[in-house]
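Batch job 17 of 40 flagged for manual review because the log was empty.
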Amino acid sequence: MTNPLIKPHHLERTAYVYLRQSTPGQCRRNREGHQRQQGMVEHVATLGWPHSQIVLLDGDTGQTGSSQHGRADFQRLLEALVTRKAGLIAARELSRLVRDNQDWAQLVRLCRFQDVLLADERRLYNPADAQDRMLLGIQGAFNEFELSVIMERMQQCLRDRAERGEQYDGLPPGYICRHATLCEKHPDPRVQRAIEKVLQDFDRFPSVRQLYLHLEAEQFQLPIVPKGRDWRDVQWVSPSYGQILALVRHPAYAGIYVRGRRQAFVTLDEQGHKQTKYRRVPREDWDVFLEDHHEAYIPKTTWERNMEKIAANANLCGDLTKGAVGRGDSLMAGLLRCRRCGNRLQTHYSSSGVRYACCGGHRQRMRGGPKCISFSGVALEALLAEELLEVIGPAGQQAARRASERLTGQYQQQRQLLVDRSEAAREAEARAAREYKQTDVTYTAVRQALGREWETALKCVAEEESRLKTFDERQPVLPSPAQLEQLAHWGEDVRRLWNHPRASNSLKQQLVRVLIQEIVADVDEQRDEAILLIQWSGGHHTQLRARRTLRSGRLSTCELKAIFDTLRKVQTDGAIAAVLNREGISTARGETWTAEQVRHYRQRAGISAYNATLKTRSGWLTQAEAATRLEISPMSVHRLVGCKILPAEQPQRGLPMVISAADLMLPEVQRAVMALKAGHTRPLPDDPRQLKFF
């Protein structure tokens, strides 16, 4: 018997049966529920619709019903309602359609005015009828309430498991969960050694980026287990910067179980659809923090030190962070704070040296307060270096001994990683060979594909073994007994090592940041002095005072002789006069230089004049001539000299440099030039002659 709610014009339209399950897991496991929903097709047929007019919509399986956003079949259903193609919408439970009360009210309203019926497995509803509309409204409210109760119950279960340290959404590389509630290190020692290398190497570098560039240069590979794979299926990949950053700051490597490092919040997009976003929360707001939860790779103190280093290296995060170590020559960049306004001082470089200025000076003057400060850092940094040498001098011998031990450990660690990669390649080759041999010969296409995989594995084995052989044949970077003795001697004379022309300025900056927590700067206008109050990491304080401005442009006799003796190799007297005037270097009387004055001074000092023949025979080149011979830009030559790859004579910063033609053929210079011509963003490698403290 036909239901009286069903009219002929309903039967002339299409009946839509909507099928949905909330999660992909339900689609895989709850197959009976899927079949029951498909049975609604036969139920609709008993109501009078022929099978040719029944459309089954099952494309939204695995999608939540909390919103209509992202459900293609539900949008198709709404289009059928608007165009009056639908006569009936059926679902085993009407909550399958939508669980948001607002979306449900919109659906019922469309069905009411388009004269479309709703049906579940028990009864038929006519939205145009007031009583049915009331029942549908109550049902929509209960659907939303039921979803909220289910979600709260699930979230509470997850919180309870997390408070016991048993909830794992995903483990970082180096850890596995073979049992439901047990987190442990990966049993493969090769995986453990790779993770330990990254965590140990981070102590040697000032930032995560420097660590990443170092690992990239070593062609380091990170072991990961893809999500959903067996823990034995380890894949070795070249890590990205984000992976290295996540690794060094993950608390799991310190044996700490945490929950709630990211907080979810729901917003509305431009179309009014709900979307979930995540943001990091401070450590004190984490939901769960369980120490000594599982076996650790590093102590908790090391992890905390890593977090402090990462936070201090954050650039553009306000005046409370020091920022990462830069490539400039300044020792105090990022450490100076203005005593008057509390802002961090900016660093400026020029031909005369480094200068510091308060970035909040304009804002301070706008408020009617005192002017902020600026001063030259040349003399102050010299005084600061003396203070540092007094502090680190007694530890020089100990640092030298630790440097030799670390060199030996690094060499052995790097070789062991190459051995691990070679063993992993051989295991992959053996597995590929076994799969190929076990395949029946009748499966020709399969055997061909497996054969290609075997050939690829064999090539990988050959490459890894060749890399290991090359490493063994190469002269190890272990210090010889003579070098160890020299290193110990340098440990006794740290001042000589600090002032060495090839000493790493980046390492000097790192030492300053380790020893000094902050420097408060001010100026004394009456005495024209800059005042620094140094706050050492140990809690002590030291005050330094030096002239606020640079001295006049008049140089000493020795300095002028050195400048003339260098510049006369590549420039005439007139060109030398122009250079000196441009740099603000005056005569003994405070006058500007002329070609005649340069000639008289040179003759009195016993310095010969410019000679083009002697210049050609001696191979002296200017910066532009060296750039022409190397077929690169003059700025690239300047960078090569600044990185101490290309030797050059430059008596004072800002003056022209004299380059020897023979130095252009040095191996390190040629490698850097080739990298520049190849268009690399970082073409200049570290100088192999660069001296290291440790």
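Reviewer: the log was empty due to a logging misconfiguration, but the result itself is present. The radius of gyration is 37 Å. Unflagging and moving on to job 18.
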